[in-house]
């Protein structure tokens, strides 16, 4: 029995990192505890019943019927709702054979589906929901003996701890998936690097760039490199996450006519979103001036001609020089400038340029 107990404890903690291990655990648990069926249930405690999960060892038709019709009248809820986590409920002991014999739930659902007695453990509980483990004897099977009941009691602490750990890790997985979803929607390429340029994270736009044949960026043994400006990039990364001294941000124009620039930003070890790593890191962003210009055009409803004028003004050109660059008359430039003032709710050229710079127009 001790070897069996130790094996069940080991299986229990294997569930923490891999949801697929719950079913093998359930299989061995029902056998070791003198049961024949079992299921994990998720209970929205603001509603009237539980739902059996796909992690079960019951007839599929019975699970479907339970979730559709009988979960709302399962008498176990009255015993489990305010029950502390880690305490088993045994229907024969607490509900009693006489009430079981008269209860419509047992007569119309459990008996027709070959189920007899149920034991249930609240594994985990949050504000409005709970996770439960139910193990059942089948009709005609003997009732579990004292040793088998004791095994369940001994395992309850490990089962609840594993469920709590699994829930926390699953919550972290969901947070990471949500973060990835948001960052992958950004058109800007983003990398999170260590001070030696080792890549810890890259969003979808960055991964696509790395996948380009003969592209500007590539990885060597997990470290990010830039084909044309690698020495400068590595220096900026080391500057942003130095072994000693103050971290400094950096800026690297690519000078290839693409209008792209690299922003290299320190991420302090104490930053709230750096808690998983807790060491200085570097955020690398590839900014595309053409894309930024397009976004500003969408934001303010600018025409392509107005966007081109705005880009020249940001570079410090006067309206007269802008007219020369654009090959148009000074009157046309002044007309476009008035349109820019109106659409951006500014009144002076300096104010307009300041706004465009703050919003990333380069």
TrEMBL record:
This is PAS domain-containing protein. GO terms for molecular function: DNA binding. The lineage of its organism: Bacteria, Pseudomonadati, Pseudomonadota, Gammaproteobacteria, Pseudomonadales. Residues 299-356 form the HTH luxR-type domain. SUPFAM superfamilies: C-terminal effector domain of the bipartite response regulators (SSF46894), PYP-like sensor domain (PAS domain) (SSF55785). It holds the Pfam family PAS_8. GO terms for biological process: regulation of DNA-templated transcription. Coiled coil: none annotated. It comes from Pseudomonas nitroreducens.
């Amino acid at each position: 029995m001790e070897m069996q107990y130790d094996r069940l404890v080991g299986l229990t903690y294997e569930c923490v990192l891999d949801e697929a291990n719950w079913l093998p655990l359930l299989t061995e648990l029902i056998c070791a505890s003198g049961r024949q069926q079992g299921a994990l249930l998720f209970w929205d405690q603001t509603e009237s019943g539980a739902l059996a999960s796909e992690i079960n060892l019951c007839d599929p038709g019975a699970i479907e019927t339970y979730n559709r019709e009988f979960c709302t009248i399962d008498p176990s809820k009255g015993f489990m709702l305010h029950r502390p986590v880690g305490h088993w409920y045994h229907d024969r002991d607490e509900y009693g054979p006489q009430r079981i014999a008269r209860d419509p739930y047992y007569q119309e659902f459990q008996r027709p589906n070959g189920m007899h007695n149920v034991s249930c453990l609240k594994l985990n509980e949050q504000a409005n929901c709970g996770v439960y483990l139910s193990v059942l004897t089948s009709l005609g099977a003997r009732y579990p003996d004292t040793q088998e009941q004791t095994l369940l009691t001994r395992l309850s602490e490990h089962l609840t701890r594993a469920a709590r750990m699994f829930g926390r890790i699953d919550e972290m997985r969901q947070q990471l998936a949500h973060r990835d979803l948001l960052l992958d929607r950004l058109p800007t390429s983003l990398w999170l690097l260590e001070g030696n340029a080792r890549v810890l994270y890259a969003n979808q736009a960055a991964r696509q760039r790395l996948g380009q044949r003969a592209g500007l960026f590539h990885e060597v043994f997990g470290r990010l490199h830039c084909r044309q400006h690698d020495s400068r990039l590595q220096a900026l990364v080391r500057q942003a996450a130095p072994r000693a001294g103050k971290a400094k941000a950096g800026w690297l124009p690519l000078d290839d006519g693409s209008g792209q620039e690299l922003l290299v930003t320190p991420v302090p070890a104490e930053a709230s979103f750096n808690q998983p790593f807790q060491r200085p890191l570097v955020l690398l962003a590839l900014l595309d001036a053409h894309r930024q210009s397009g976004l500003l055009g969408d934001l303010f409803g600018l025409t392509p001609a107005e966007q081109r004028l705005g880009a020249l003004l940001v570079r410090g050109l006067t309206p007269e020089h802008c007219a020369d660059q654009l090959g148009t008359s000074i009157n046309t430039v002044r007309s476009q400038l008035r349109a820019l003032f109106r659409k951006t709710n500014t009144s002076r050229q300096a104010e307009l340029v300041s706004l465009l710079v703050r919003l990333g127009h380069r």
